[in-house]
Every structure is written in structure tokens, then in C-alpha cells.
Design brief:
Helix content is about 35%, strand content about 25%. It is of the alpha/beta class. The longest helix is centred in the N-terminal third of the chain and has 14 residues. It starts with a strand and ends in a 10-residue tail after the last helix.
Length: about 400
């Protein structure tokens, strides 16, 4: 009998790589998402899909929905794939020993997800990161006065809310914001997998086409200095799980980590699909890179290409790239995640149109982390019923 893995988000293509890999490895794959339809739901790799409460709406109910699912579907492994990881991680302490969450403890995730805390942690290990301070900290004033700087939310994702200023420019000391010294150079991103502090796979890439603040075409690059930085950070934190970073590489070629995402990013598309699940489960398993140096999300790239119509050199160049670059969701034996994406992504499209916001913002708005109050009780009635075997299946969503 195959084991069951629960993927806790279905709307983003990066989860599809994980789902397909586990299906190829013989696992039964189920997925949960607050949206009623999504890209993973169109895949042959998925056995069943369930709608759950959005964590940003009610995090405790979201976790209860997942607990119901885990019990009803006999799940033995839970795999978060994006911002929801911060809400899923507390389940580690509420599950029986035979059910595992592929995540570090929540406290470790928060220590690096908070951009100010991450910068201090990296600098304390002798790793390059720009000076960063909470907006209310006196150090923030010194950073803002001494050179160009940026102001951004401490817990933001997808580049949202980032503002640049020149030295001495006026800025608002908003709660929950931080100030970071601006490093000029080229942007790089990283998606890595580590086990007990040892780096097992690392993809360094850049955004080759952007849709707002989100990359939709990606180019893999060789950068030994960044890989060395990531390996040192993984070792210093004894990290196990996925770990992603954004870097600025200065004119001298030195990398400076500007933030950390303790989760998957689009860089997972550069790993060979068949290797992902085995590498997650076995520290000795290889995690090899795909041959393709360039990958894209076809439909967003199509939109960006259409927007360049009229600027003929740019349009021609983008058209060539559009039809010569492999889509991240495409698989001949599993074509519907790509072909059906305009339908499966409609909940995100509709939210973006209704809220007059970017696609990336619409895709993450109901997942974002906000400080939660401490739990009032350690054991809920739901936990007690499950422990006694009295809960077979409950409403999901």
C-alpha cells in the first residue's frame, strides 16, 4: 500500500514539481488549498484535492482543517510549499510520531523569515548581508542618513512594499517596517535543500522576465561564491529542509544576502523532477540540476510579450524566447496543468482584478504571516477525539 503525502498549497507551479516527484516515487499525493481549483488539481499526479480555510483568514481553523485531512486520508508526510509553511509548522507538535512535517520548527522559520533578524544572524556568522534595522530602532536612522537605503516590510514576500531612497531622504517610520542599506548590483536568487546543515542541492538563478515584482522566466547561473555562502549558512543553522535567498552581487562579484525565504521558490524548477522527493527523504540521494538553463511560466510570459507589441525589436526577441523556452509545468504525460492554466488560475486572476493588485500579490494575500496570539489551550477537543480514534472525517473548508 502506497504512503500518502499532503501538499498544503496547490495554486503555484513549484508545488507541481514536488507532487510529480512523489507520484513518480510511488506515493499517493493529495493537496489542500483555500481556492476551489488550482494548477495542481489539474495534474494526473494528484489523487484528491481539498478546499481548506485560508491561513491568513483563520490560522487555527486552517490547521484544524489540515489535521482532519491528515487523519481522514492517512497522511504520513506533510509538505508545505510556500508562505503557508509558517502556519503549517506548528503542526509538528500536534501530530503522532508516524506523521512528519517537512519543515523546521516554527521558531527557526521565523528567525530567518524576519528580514531584520535574518540579516543580524547572517552577519553574526561572518556572512555578508547589508546592515538592517527595524524602523523604530535608532540604527535605522543612522542607515538612512549615511547612504542610499530601502524600506520594506519585515515579513513581506514577492518583493511587495519595497521602496528605495537616497541618503537623507524623508521616510515614514511605519510599524512593521525595516530599513536596509542599499547594495547596488545584480540580483540573484537561490533555492536550496539541506539536511542537518549539509547542502544537498543548490540552484542559483535570476529573473529573465518580470511580471510586476515576480519573475516569470528564470535563467540558471553558475555562482560558486553564492553556493559557498549558502552552504555556510545551512551549516551554521543546522538547517533541514528547503531554504531560499535573494542576493545582490556587487561590482566586485561579492554576494550580499538581502533576505531569506525558508521555503521553496521557483528555483525548484531547475532540479530534476525525479530527484526531488528522494532527496527530501534521503540525505544521501542526489539532487541533480536539469539540463535546461532557462525555464518560464508560459501564460504570464505571453502576457508580458503581448504588452511589448509595437516595440518590434523587443517584441520579436520576446516572441522567440516565448516559443523556445520550456514551461515549468509542461509534461507530455501530464499536459493539463499547462493547457488548463487559464481556467485553474482564475481564482487568482479574479482576485487580482477585483483588488487592482498584481498577480503575485493576489496569489499570496491569503497566505501571509502575521503575528499570532499564543494558543489558549494545549489540547483541543478535536485532538482528543482524534487520539481516541473517534474522528473519521470532518468538513474541509
Amino acid at each position: 500500500m502506497s504512503r500518502t503525502v499532503l501538499i498544503t498549497l496547490g495554486r503555484l507551479p513549484k508545488g507541481l514539481d514536488v507532487a510529480r516527484s512523489f507520484a513518480q516515487a510511488g506515493w499517493r499525493v493529495v493537496v489542500a488549498d483555500p481556492f476551489p481549483r488550482h494548477v495542481l488539481g489539474a495534474s494526473r499526479a494528484i489523487a484528491r484535492s481539498f478546499q481548506v480555510t485560508a491561513p491568513a483568514v483563520n490560522a487555527e481553523r486552517f490547521r484544524d482543517d489540515l489535521l482532519d485531512l491528515i487523519a481522514a486520508q492517512n497522511v504520513s508526510l506533510v509538505v508545505p510549499v510556500s508562505e503557508e509553511i509558517l502556519h503549517v509548522a506548528p503542526l509538528r507538535d500536534r501530530l503522532p510520531p508516524f506523521v512528519h512535517v517537512f519543515s523546521m520548527p516554527q521558531a527557526d522559520l521565523l528567525a530567518v523569515h524576519d528580514k531584520a533578524r535574518f540579516a543580524r544572524l547572517a552577519r553574526a556568522q561572518g556572512l555578508s548581508a547589508p546592515q538592517t534595522a527595524p524602523a523604530e530602532d535608532p540604527d535605522a536612522l543612522e542607515i538612512a542618513a549615511s547612504g542610499p537605503f530601502i524600506v520594506k516590510p519585515r515579513h513581506a514576500c514577492a518583493g511587495l512594499g519595497v521602496r528605495r531612497y537616497e541618503a537623507g531622504a524623508p521616510w515614514r517610520r511605519e510599524p512593521g517596517a525595516l530599513v536596509q542599506r542599499l547594495v547596488r548590483g545584480e540580483e540573484r536568487s537561490v533555492c536550496a535543500l539541506a539536511h542537518a546543515g549539509r547542502l544537498r542541492g543548490c540552484a542559483v538563478y535570476r529573473g529573465a522576465m518580470m511580471s510586476g515584482t515576480v519573475a516569470v522566466r528564470f535563467e540558471r547561473l553558475a555562482d560558486p561564491a553564492i553556493e559557498t555562502w549558502v552552504a555556510a549558512f545551512a551549516a551554521a543553522t543546522d538547517w533541514s529542509g528547503f531554504l531560499s535567498f535573494d542576493f545582490i552581487v556587487d561590482e566586485a562579484g561579492a554576494p550580499h544576502a538581502i533576505e531569506c525565504n525558508p521555503r521553496l521558490t521557483s528555483g525548484v524548477h531547475f532540479f530534476q523532477t525525479a530527484d526531488i522527493a528522494p532527496a527530501m527523504l534521503d540525505p544521501a540521494a542526489p539532487l541533480r540540476l536539469r539540463a535546461e538553463p532557462m525555464m518560464q511560466q508560459f501564460w504570464p510570459c505571453l502576457s508580458q510579450t503581448q504588452a511589448s507589441f509595437g516595440d518590434w525589436p523587443v517584441f520579436a526577441r520576446q516572441m522567440r524566447a516565448l516559443f523556445s523556452t520550456r514551461d515549468v509545468t509542461w509534461a507530455a504525460r501530464d499536459p493539463w496543468p499547462l493547457l488548463g492554466q487559464p481556467w485553474s488560475a482564475w481564482p487568482i486572476i479574479a482576485r487580482a482584478r477585483a483588488g487592482a493588485c498584481s498577480f503575485g500579490e493576489a496569489a499570496s494575500a491569503d497566505l501571509l504571516w502575521a503575528e499570532e496570539p499564543a494558543p489558549v489551550r494545549e489540547t483541543t477537543m478535536r485532538d482528543a477525539a482524534r487520539a481516541q480514534g473517534g474522528l473519521e472525517h470532518a468538513r474541509i473548508g
